[in-house]
Amino acid sequence: MGQNQNIKIAKCTKFQIVANDTNKSGILERLLEIRKRKFRWIGHTLRKEDGEIPKAALIWNPQGNRKRGRPRNSWRISVIKEAGRSWNELRFLAADSQKWKGLIDNLCS
After folding, report:
1. Is 34 helix (H, G, I), strand (E, B) or coil?
2. Domain residues of the chain, as ranges?
3. pTM score > 0.90 for this model?
4. Lowest mean pLDDT segment, chosen from 12-16, 25-29, 44-48, 96-100
């Protein structure tokens, strides 16, 4: 590679990346936007009809034991940890879109 080529990381060239204490690259804003979109999608999916595939995949709870070793975390468990609420409580809040938007605003502020 030539020295004049710029490597892009998180839509920033290596010359735009600065120390961790400053946020000139906007990474924190991008991470908050990703979290906001994730929770919007979850709320949208939980409000769908019961027979639809995305909702069935989201609420599916696999049964049985896993193999020995490091436990694999599911996406659902990561959502529960980020929200700090139980799955049933999240399903209840998602039914009312205004309450769900309030939850998203609290999580992404």
Report:
1. helix
2. 27-60+73-109
3. no
4. 12-16
